[in-house]
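Continuing the batch. This is chain 6 of the set; chains 1 through 5 are on the previous pages. Same settings as before, nothing changed between runs. Recording input and output for traceability.
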Amino acid sequence: MKKFAALLFLALAFALPASAEVIFSEVMASNGVYTNGEAYDWVEIYNTGDKKVNLSGCWLSDSEKNLQKWAFPEGASVKAGEYVLVYLTGEEMTPGKNKTFYANFKISAEGDQLFLTDAQGENLLAALEFGAQYGNVSWGQAHGSEETGFFRTATPGKKNEKQVYPQQAPQPELLTAGGFYESAVTVQAKGDGDVVLRYTLDGDTPTEKSKVFPEKGITFEKTGVLRIAAFSENTVPSRPVTASYFIGEAQPVPVVSLVTDEKYLFNKKTGALVKGESSSYPNYEKEWEYPANIEFFGMGGLCEINQMGTFTAAGHSARQNAQKSIAIYARKAYGQDRFYFNPFPNRDYESYKSLLLRGANSDAFSTRLRDVVISSLAKPLDIIYQDALAIEVYINGEYWGHYNLREKINKHFVAQWEGVTEDADIDNIDILARTGRDEFLQNGDNTDWLALCDFCKTEDLNIPENLAFVEERLDIDSLFTHAAFEIIIGNDDFTNVRVYRVPGGKWKYLLFDVEAGFLSNDKAPMNYYIKKVGDKVQGFRHEPMAALLHVPEMKARFLTRFAEILDISFRWPSVEKAFAPWEETLETLLPRHLSRWPHFTMKEWRQNVDAVKFYGRIRPTKIVSLLQKHMKLTDAEVETYFGNVQKVLEEENIFKN
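Output for chain 6:
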């Protein structure tokens, strides 16, 4: 009542011009339509009059105490009978143009208010108050009347529906849990109150045209999925309840089941996992993010999560593979904003914002374990890496093969590793890919990083002040660890580089996508990591490394760290131990996987794995001589830094007769 009284007071306190016949016609305060990881809330302004309204300089705000939060740019207007859409981003963005704009504040899904005042701040043009909102359901004024309520279909920037509803129907309850059953199972469900339950079995969201759920239930005699929603004449349809039923299926590893509408998956025009109709810009490159129900079944069939979220196609060049990698996200608009479980063996986190279902990417046609095994060797090295778990994936009840569940690289992943908990600090984590230039800015800001690289390119770090400048900004141990690790494994995919910085911290390196390692005994990638400071940049920004290696104490520090990493992570017993569980698991999974995705035979897989293990065993014994030649190290330096570890590697890694 206090908010309503305030709105009434404002309406009375301002003179409302007769010509300014604009209203807030529709609002979305919990948006579930995501683009590039963002789903900004929005408000729609409609001109109900017969003349164009000039919005230049007019103020939009959610605070009666501060009506001048954001102003429309010069030239903004709304014609008679037309709409203007304002996204409420909470950050400064480009002003927008035509009928779409971006305001620098957010609104609350718990209920909020909006005000539109003229450029002088003297007249209230429109005011709106709304209560608690449902996720991904818009609220506003029905077209052709003054009645307000919830819409069944959001229409941002377009004519509203003619009917509104006071609430959303309660979600149905499944009385038979999803999971693994030895034989056929009959699924029962119930609704709350005077509703009709409608269902689908193909993954599509139930509509009013879907079949009515029978009182006797639905019997699953083979693996399938069920989605049920509640409908009534006086409500918005409920959110669907979804479950997967696995009939007579073995469960050698945990299972992820994705259930979503076919139009989001394989439709040529709208599907995220297909090439689509464009020959130059395929659908799977467009970062389309769609809603999906996500279930995770741990060993023993225990369902650890069952919630709505979103998914996108993931990866780089491997998006062309038939078995796409898929990123999944917990989104507040669909329920919970985190996945409240921890599937990984080497993490103690309680939840995740996002996860990656990795289809082995370029290793999909070879071993399907190279990246996960090599990444695990970084565990004792105090450098951030992605943990992994072998899983099987089902999409709309269809077996989709072996995947490796991975942590998704983003600001939340870095925050967990670094112990950053405040939302504002998480938002300001800097993450840069490749060279760190603007086109490779993943999150935050790259100004300091580019300046640091330029500084190292032009300044002598043998001068104490210059070295101190670099040490204040760069975690040198992280750089040396990353470079040494990549050189030892021989990862010549030099584009797979990311650096990050938490607020108040130093730049560090993030290890990821090392599946090009253990492929040869060549000196690569030394040519990318250790080179002259003025040489061409190739993915890895070599300038800090090059400048530091010109400082004798830093060169000694790098060589010492290189030897430590060889000793800690690349002695054969440690490497062999890392391979063993993945080999055993894939021996079990691959026969079925290869019947779905016949990329190679089991015999070829065994040969490929043995080849990778060979290089994993022998390459560490050869890397010192390659490093000596590349860095022009003396025999005395080699003995000083590598004498002991070379003896250990010769004893443990080299094949004996």
